[in-house]
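seq:
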Amino acid sequence: MDLLATPRSPGRTATGARRAALLALAGLALAGCGVRVETPPPPAPTPGPLEIVRQDAAETSLELSHLAARAAEETLDEELFAVLERTRLEAEAHLEALGGVYSAEEGGVVDPSTLTEESEGAEDEEDAAGDGEEAPAPVTPGELLAELVDSAAYARTAADSVEDAGLAQLLAVIASSRLVEADTIARAVEAEDRPDLSAAPPLSLPAGVPVSAIEKIVLAEDQARFAFESIAARSPEGGTRNRALASSARHRVVSDTWARLAGLSEPGLDPRQVVYALEGSLADAASRKELAARIEQALVESYTALVALAEPGSRAELAALHTEAVGAARRWGLVPSALPGLPSTEDASD
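struct:
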């Protein structure tokens, strides 16, 4: 992704090259006569709408990494420290995926290592001591939680409105990551208010998404319905069975809704089957939880792909369903990733 979303037309590029060549020749000629030409520095490029959104998301990620680091410094709870440290690392991963923070003064992307919280904190303390002011207050987990929720809402809104499909997909994925991290922090500190990771069934078809893609998500949601029915049938009475039954009912509703909206519920058009082959064993609790997490992760990847296909103004419901799947996969034991649903660098290079 280009850092500056201000593309130049081929005509303008050629014209600029010719002008540069003429100026260089003129400078050489005048230099031979002992005359020095003073040329003003080139004007700073004006960021376009996409760059403004990208830069804001990158700055937010940098700020969240600093807040998480400060919150981690204040806790003696090892489990909470691990959660806050993971939040910091994920914010740094978001910053890298977004391309970093661009500085017009430096004429490029700022090295995050030059903006570490430690160096900034030392400067702030020195300034505060010199001015007779107090150093910045520590960050509490609750304050970090609130910042994560607010920034996730902003990222999801931006994902629904930007023209660039790749940036929209990345912002939607980042929003889900922040919400799930906020929920993890809320659980760790036993907060009463937790972010809402649930999603309502879709109300309309997203513009730009072909029916063939909707057909695949109808099938994927129905496969999830069957998988959770199977997990519930093999589980003893108790929490796991009840959770599996609730998940099965949820996936059935979403699959039925997508099928109805796309006109696929008619006989002969409906891609769904009565039974599906399930990979892996359901013999013990560990294997059933592994299957549940894998099924939800498959939906995470499916909704990630759909966000990139949808047109601006049609991505909000897909982003919400993505968040719900990310949260569900985590509750079944899948370790959260910084960019849930996007292939990792290692996967892309294979």
